[in-house]
Design brief:
Pfam families: 5-FTHF_cyc-lig. It is an enzyme of class 6 (ligase). InterPro entries: FTHF_cligase (IPR002698), FTHF_cligase-like_sf (IPR024185), NagB/RpiA_transferase-like (IPR037171). The chain is an alpha/beta fold and 198 residues long. It has one domain: NagB/RpiA/CoA transferase-like (Rossmann fold), CATH 3.40.50.10420. It is 30% helix and 22% strand. The strands form 3 sheets. It has a 7-stranded mixed beta sheet with strand order 3-2-1-6-9-11-12. The radius of gyration is 16 Å and the shape is globular. It starts with a helix and ends in a 6-residue tail after the last strand. 34% of the residues are buried.
Length: 198
């Protein structure tokens, strides 16, 4: 059975990846503005002073403008750094930080590296996703970094996945290690997902 789940995930990821490739540069700019507006409002509503966020790739809904504005407002933003062992290190975002290509070609900060437990102190986690379903189950890109991070946190704060509107779907394939999210942020809306029994 796990093989069929993995195959379903692979097929859905491939479809979503292909759809993201077709989004125009102009539409991406509009999406980044919308994501910034939605995340700003979410941070404000939660009173978050310390958050984690990811640096988006060119095909993801953009987070760079949000991160820069949050840092400028004095919010502590931790950015993930991928490790070979499947865990995430973290670095504090700064206004003038360099960005380099990490494992898998992902944009990552250059700076003082904090260990995996640094994220335990944040008020909000903002994470990437390929899709999220109505129950809050998240389909990631298959490397398991964020599932491991969420699964290892003793006291997990709210977790919001950033996706395009069309990626909020009825159902995603789910495996035992997959971790749900508290809600989604898209370029046009923020949806809080009520916790439901697994």
């Amino acid at each position: 059975m796990p093989d069929s789940i993995e195959q379903a995930k692979r097929a859905l990821r491939a479809d979503l990846r292909e759809r993201r490739q077709t989004i125009s540069a102009h539409a991406r700019e509009i999406a980044e503005d919308g994501v910034k507006e939605q995340l700003d409002a979410l941070v404000e509503s939660l009173g978050a002073r310390s958050i984690s966020c990811f640096l988006s790739t060119t095909t993801e809904p953009g987070t760079h403008a949000f991160v820069a504005a949050a840092v400028a407002r004095g919010i502590r933003v931790l950015l993930p750094i991928t490790r070979e062992d499947g865990l995430l290190d973290w670095a504090v975002a700064t206004p003038d930080a360099d960005i380099t290509e990490g494992l898998f070609g992902l944009p990552e900060p250059v700076g003082d590296v904090l260990g995996p437990i640094a994220v335990n102190d944040v008020d909000l986690l903002v994470i990437p996703a390929a899709a999220v379903d109505r129950r809050g189950m998240r389909l990631g890109w298959g490397r398991g970094y964020f599932d491991k991070t969420l699964g290892s946190m003793e006291k997990c704060p709210p977790v919001y996945a950033v996706i395009f509107d069309s990626e909020f779907v009825d159902d995603v394939p789910r495996d035992v290690h997959d971790q749900p999210v508290s809600g989604i942020v898209t370029p046009t809306r923020t949806v809080r997902i009520a916790a439901s029994p697994a």
